[in-house]
## 1
Amino acid sequence: MKTGIKRFGISLDGLLLKSFDSLIAKKGYSNRSEAIRDLIRDNLVQTEWEAGNKECIGTVTIVYSHHRRELLDVLTDIQHNFHTSVISSMHVHMDEHNCLEVIVVRGKGNDIKKIADRLIGAKGVKHGKLTVTTTGKELV
Ligand code: NI
């Protein structure tokens, strides 16, 4: 595959283009090309992640009560069980009662999903969210 910048035309309905222009203006894009490049990249990353067997990287964000001391042990055990995939974590004492933890995980999509499910599903976790992105190796 030849690299370098290629130009191509896109045909689409005027109303759809108007909506797109309005959307990208709100998001702060300076031009359509950059917005379209981001849409393509996002789709490629999503497909990579959904394949399940490609290496991805993600963050698991969880919120839980500081007073659930047994939960701290459970969350630590899960991270030790998957120590080869858990790269780093950050703990924030949000107030007297609530903790926020962000755990960075790297590995095959399916494995990341499994770790996130365990952490988010741990009894006492109030809310959790997995965000997956790419390692960047296969994207330009
Ligand atoms: Ni805390």
Note: The longest strand covers residues 55-65.
## 2
Amino acid sequence: MAAAAARDRVKRRAPGALDLAASALVSVLPRRLEPAISQARLDARMLVDGLRGERVPAFSTHASPAIPPTPLGDIHPLELVLPRPLAERYVSMRRDVSMVLRELRGDRAPHLIRRDRARERSVVAATTIPTVLTRTLEVVRVVEETADARTFVLRDVSGAALDFTPGQFLTLHVAIDGVSYRRAYSISSSTSDRAVCITVKRIAGGRVSSHLVEHVRAGDRLTAHGPSGSFVVPSSVGARHLVLVAGGSGITPIASIVRDVLANDPRSRLTLVYGNRSEADTIFGDELDALARTHAERFSIVHVVEHPARDGRHVRGIPDRETIGRVIEEHALLVAREGEEPALVMTCGPGPMMTAVRHAFTARGVPDARILEERFLSPGDPRGRARATAPQLVTLRTRAGVRDVEVDPDQTVLEAALARGVTLPFSCQMGGCGACRVRGSGELVMDEPNCLSEAERREGYVLSCVCRALGPATIETGDTR
Ligand code: FES
């Protein structure tokens, strides 16, 4: 799932000329170029902001949410100047033309895919999810990393590239015994690798992780959407030190970042503080140690192991505030080399560990804004959810106008809106990132747990991706105010 640090991110920066130009380029060039165009846009925008003396938060924290630019796909240049009724038609036409173009380019699967039921034996799509949101991935290979962790090597069956930024995740839609679950799994491979991989660790009582680890094999298909997420290394023009702190399976986005930075960003050096119960539980342990030997000038690892088999090589203990503080001091993690920016801290792992990381670094003068977290939460069991018995009418007030849509009992408001061509913002689709936050009134109920704070609930916000209608309701996006 997505970063809790991004939970407040609903405020988007209005598109400017650079964004419009990038959007126009993306609509005519091959899809594989989109990440490069998007990155160039962000770099150019930061430069322009800097020249203008505008400092926009580049990092997302609890105290200071990032204000990201509007995603390229959400920018409709003509929509900004057309009268509202024409704008709505334009958006609809643009979407249709874009889908036809993408199919002609081979960028996405055709709408009608012949079902091969034999191959869908273990993992199937949830039937209520609009196909426009998802992609079908084939498991090319399964790698046993530890007794409980598997890496799944994936390819999009349509042949489309799986473009991502290291640190992002895929949200899997998994049906088990007729019940649909969603879970986010970070991509563990580098953009330089030929394949895209996710790594899943079986957790106690985890229905989806157990299902994936125990039953999914090469040749099976997974329904997913994404890549999504904002736990990525911000662009920078100077030399810098990335301090990465991972616990257990929290290594997956961090491993992607390590591999990618070592391969593609010679200005950055990395220190990884990696906590595990034992050496046998250490995912990617041998590979990361080998990378540290190969790139000794730029990459070092401090293993923190609760029950080490050998003494001396590892720090014995758990990555709590005291241990992390000791590692910071003994390994001089905050001492910058000449010409280097102050350290940027990125952490992913159990909640208590990330809280300890934040305390240990802020106590030593690291600003909140330079500590990035990736927090995953597991949505509750869908079998206990309240459901309507019949479709309900929900009024959607968006920048494009007012539209009534029917929301089926097993649909979320987001699914219903997108299936009917109404554009709403979203990312993780499982209540974890806050990207889909909208104002809601009427008979709405949200799946729990999710990342919406009590204050946000009191102010009338809901998350459309986990929001269901039990009766008539209204949803309003912030841009209509
Ligand atoms: S909370 Fe992430 S898309 Fe809804």
Note: The longest strand covers residues 135-144.
